[in-house]
Task: inverse folding
């Protein structure tokens, strides 16, 4: 039966995934958001009716109203739905309902979820399994974050940030790692551990838990739950592990061992040890599903990555500009390690802290993760709907960072960064924007203005001839 779903905050990456799947299933979809973006444009092209701005009249004759964690109870559309008695569901509840019709595969964890989910979707498609996928990022090859497949499998990235992954009861549960993160929701480490323990138990009785074996805290938690599990990682004790790792010019290759036997070589056009771990999670799942290794390896060899995950924005005048979504110290360390391993020149970092609560809770860890950047620019905190916290500001953060860093560290307002880069960027530099906010726009703007300058120079040369 066709229903009318109204999604508040439809332009967000998670909400747009739900909307895309509902539209593909023939449901009627409307929604609203505070601004138009590429996701909104894509959904309108798919048939959604979307209004820019929130108004209680926007929900119309909706049968179900869906909202994300970014929407508060004060939202006029959400309040109107409650007044009218319209069923109201969180984003994760709808996704869990959609998965309930299939054999569910979830990808959870603090870091690497989006890339791992994307790899799995591509691998299963290559194997002819035609999965439905719900991903928390835009896959470079498809330009989408969702696909409705004809097969029995449903692969979804699930969100631990607000505990909403507890709505799911998957048959296969991949957990990339755990970390002290999302402290705007979790009270402490015990709260995180208890929530994950509950999630482990929600994996079906005959299901399979797949975990990163090098994360000993994670594996200890699973053992405490009494559940059996498979592991992937870099140790010979893991069920699936990598050996003979080679990294060169933003490409990665390794030999894969599955259940004690050399399965073969994997080559990927994306850099970083963390991406090898993501690929190993994919290979571990594939081995459980009985997918031929050569099919898995070929799929990974064609994996183009995900937007905002070490994404190259452009190369202009021998300056390479890359963007990465890294917004936690662990992610920043992994991203910067990749940058230094793959690039022989100077690494110029542009860091935009994401959320005051995160910066406050992990202040020392952020300082430590950024101290070795060759040239670091820090801009203002991206609030992400949070109120400012007194004393938690970028200028103070820079002062602390200067105390332990042997490299230049400066604070600059975001709107002034591009002009600063024009004066300081040198041939051979790798400029990398770091953060989950809008800092990537700095990279785009720098590349755009650099190219415009080059075009004008070429025009003058042509005119002089």
Result:
């Amino acid at each position: 039966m066709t229903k009318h779903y109204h999604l508040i905050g439809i332009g967000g990456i998670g909400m747009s995934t739900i909307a895309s799947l509902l539209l593909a299933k023939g449901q009627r979809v409307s929604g609203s958001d505070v601004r138009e973006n590429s996701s909104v444009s894509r959904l309108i092209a798919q048939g959604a009716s979307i209004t820019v701005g929130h108004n209680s009249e926007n929900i119309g004759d909706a049968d179900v109203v869906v909202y994300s964690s970014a929407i508060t109870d004060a939202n006029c559309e959400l309040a109107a739905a409650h007044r009218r008695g319209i069923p109201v569901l969180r984003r994760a509840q709808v996704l869990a309902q959609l998965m309930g019709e299939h054999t569910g595969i979830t990808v959870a964890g603090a870091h690497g979820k989006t890339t791992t989910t994307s790899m799995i979707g591509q691998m299963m498609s290559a194997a002819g399994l035609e999965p439905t996928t719900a991903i928390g990022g835009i896959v470079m090859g498809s330009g989408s974050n969702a696909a409705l497949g004809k097969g029995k499998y449903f692969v979804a990235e699930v969100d631990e940030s607000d505990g909403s992954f507890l709505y799911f009861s998957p048959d296969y549960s991949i957990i990339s790692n755990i970390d002290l993160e999302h402290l705007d929701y979790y009270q402490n480490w015990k709260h995180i551990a208890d929530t994950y323990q509950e999630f482990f138990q929600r994996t079906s009785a005959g299901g399979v838990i797949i975990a990163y074996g090098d994360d000993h805290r994670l594996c200890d938690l699973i053992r405490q739950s009494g559940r059996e599990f498979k592991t992937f990682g870099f140790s010979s004790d893991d069920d699936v592990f990598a050996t003979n790792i080679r990294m060169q010019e933003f490409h990665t290759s390794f030999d894969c061992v599955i259940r004690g036997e050399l399965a073969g070589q994997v080559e990927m056009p994306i850099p970083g040890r963390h991406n090898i771990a993501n690929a190993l999670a994919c290979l571990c799942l594939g081995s459980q599903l009985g997918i031929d290794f050569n099919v898995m390896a070929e799929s990974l060899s064609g994996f183009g990555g995900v937007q905002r995950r070490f994404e190259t924005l452009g190369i202009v005048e021998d300056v390479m500009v890359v963007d990465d979504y890294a917004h936690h110290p662990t992610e920043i360390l992994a991203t910067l390690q990749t940058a230094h391993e793959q690039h022989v020149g100077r690494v110029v970092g542009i860091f935009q802290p994401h959320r005051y609560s995160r910066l406050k809770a992990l202040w020392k860890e952020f300082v430590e993760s950024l101290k070795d950047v060759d040239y670091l620019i820090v801009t203002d905190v991206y609030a992400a709907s949070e109120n400012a916290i007194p004393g938690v500001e970028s200028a103070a953060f820079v002062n602390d960072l200067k105390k332990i860093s042997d490299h230049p560290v400066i604070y600059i307002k975001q709107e002034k960064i591009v002009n600063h880069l024009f004066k300081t960027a040198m041939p051979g530099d790798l400029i990398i924007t770091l953060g989950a906010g809008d800092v990537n726009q700095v990279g785009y703007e720098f590349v755009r203005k650099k190219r415009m300058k080059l075009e004008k120079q070429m025009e003058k040369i042509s005119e002089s001839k």
In short: The radius of gyration is 23 Å. The chain has a mean pLDDT of 90. The longest helix spans residues 440-464. The first strand starts at residue 4 and ends at 8.
